[in-house]
Write a structure and sequence with these properties.
Length: 448
């Protein structure tokens, strides 16, 4: 049976703004308070989805969330009508209003961890929504994420959904941003690679000194258990704490994998040799031949990687077996990174081509091409069971771009977030979106 990797990209929501909310994420901190352009952000994301679809890849779309999250503000004690809740928060606690307005759900690599059916005990595709509990503005995403994923992958014969892990730091879970799957073919059993930043219960593991390690070993282990993964099909590795302290807040900022290939920075992991050997042995047991492409620090520093987002790229398999790397424009702007990429594609190795995309609006908050997509490996039958409303087609692309043109503002600052009219605009837009994507009622304003 045929199988595919389907990339579901997060559609940027109408409140996209630079709130400076993510300590440890260099771009988010350095662009804090700048004015953003939600319309441009959404169109940049849609252009990437369309380009990948046009290249022959399977592409889907994941809906944004209701923002401002008035219910979240009510839970923090703001009361009155919806407009009053927003006005009170703006006056008394602007950072909380900004957090409740974040369009951060666009980075759907953090929406969930997904295990394909070939890896799981019950032969279904498993999803665990990420609790994202390292940052308040992200911790409020998972209830709606679960509803949206449930509406996209509704068929219980093929899809199993797990609620987010307990919302405490010990089970900090950031979803697929710290998870990679290696396999010979998408429909065959593979090896799932979980990368954690620290252990919550075992003091033998080191931890970063400056910035938080968002993913714990215990969270990764819980996800592997929930999904029914075999021990032989799982490898755990620790992120090098010193790169977290240099701004690598997710592993997908320093490594990316696909098929049998891991593309990573020399400083990405601890105990790299042991980890590579384990990946190689376990992949061999399911018929695969593991290959790694290490980028040496002498060619690209960790700082270059963080600024250019070289590794926050999409590594995609072409029908001829070669791979294509989708990188952000910022890679072309960094001389060392660009030179490295030129050499890489000329070397005759597995990565044969690089394509550049302008995702500046998202990049300025620390979200590159890889952050914007959730990968779901599906066989033909499973793909046919996905809600067809969320699979990208030329007509869907046209409707979504027109929808963005109609509803989105082209400038957003803190003052705009305090405008109660924004809530009404967003709800009207999202109500229409659920019809375009055939999601049914998924937003709090639709179900309460
Ligand atoms: O969680 N930025 C996101 C970026 C997530 C990137 N995802 C992956 N690497 N997979 C984060 O730090 C910034 C929001 C703000 O500051 O307005 C933010 O949430």
């Amino acid at each position: 049976m045929k199988s595919y990797e389907v990339n579901f990209d997060g559609l940027v929501g109408p409140t996209h703004n630079y709130g400076g909310l993510s300590y440890g994420n260099v771009a988010s901190q350095s662009n804090s308070q700048q004015s953003s352009n939600p319309k441009e952000a959404a169109l940049q994301g849609l252009a990437k989805m369309k380009a990948l679809m046009d290249m022959g890849f399977q592409q889907g779309v994941l809906a944004p969330q209701e923002r401002p999250d008035v219910a979240a503000l009510r839970r923090l004690g703001f009361a009155g009508s919806d407009a009053q809740v927003i006005q009170h928060a703006a006056k008394e606690a602007m950072p909380l209003l900004v957090a409740s307005c974040s369009a951060s759900s666009m980075w759907v690599a953090n929406a969930a961890t997904v295990s394909p059916s070939a890896d799981t005990a019950d032969g279904r595709v498993h999803f665990t929504a990420a609790n994202l509990n390292c940052k308040y503005h992200r911790s409020i995403e998972h209830p709606t994420t679960s509803r949206v994923l449930g509406a996209m992958f509704a068929d219980q014969q093929h899809f199993a959904h797990h609620a987010a892990l307990p919302a405490v730091a010990q089970f900090g879970d950031e979803g697929a941003a710290n998870h990679t799957r290696f396999c010979r073919a998408y429909g065959e059993a593979g090896v799932e690679f979980f990368v954690f930043g620290r252990s919550a219960f075992d003091t033998r593991f080191p931890a970063p000194q400056k910035y938080p390690a968002r993913q714990t070993l215990e969270a990764s282990q819980a996800v592997a258990r929930l999904h029914g993964l075999r021990e032989e099909g799982v490898v755990y590795a620790q992120q090098n704490p010193s790169v977290i302290d240099q701004g690598v807040f997710h592993n997908d900022v320093i490594a990316v994998g696909n098929g049998e290939v891991l593309f990573y920075h020399e400083d990405a992991f601890l105990e790299t040799d042991r980890m590579l050997a384990e990946l190689s042995t376990k992949l061999a047991k399911v018929g695969g031949k593991f290959q790694s492409v290490c980028v040496p620090r002498s060619a690209v520093t960790v700082d270059d990687a963080v600024r250019s987002y070289l590794f926050n790229s999409q590594l995609l398999s072409r029908p001829d077996g070669s791979m294509l790397l989708i990188v952000p424009e910022e890679c072309r702007g960094n001389e060392r990174v660009w030179q490295y990429l030129q050499g890489l594609t000329r070397s005759g190795g597995v990565i044969g081509e690089v394509k550049v995309f302008d995702l500046k609006q998202s990049m300025q908050n620390g979200g590159g091409p890889a952050c914007l997509r959730l990968r779901v490996a599906l066989n033909e039958t499973e793909l046919a069971a996905v809600n067809p409303g969320v699979i990208m087609t030329a007509p869907l692309y046209d409707s979504l771009t027109q929808w963005v043109e109609r509803h989105y503002r082209d400038r957003m600052t803190e003052n705009d977030l305090a405008d109660p009219q924004l809530l009404l605009e967003c709800r009207a837009a999202l109500d229409e979106l659920t019809q375009i994507l055939k999601l049914g009622a998924v937003y709090p304003f639709q179900i309460n």
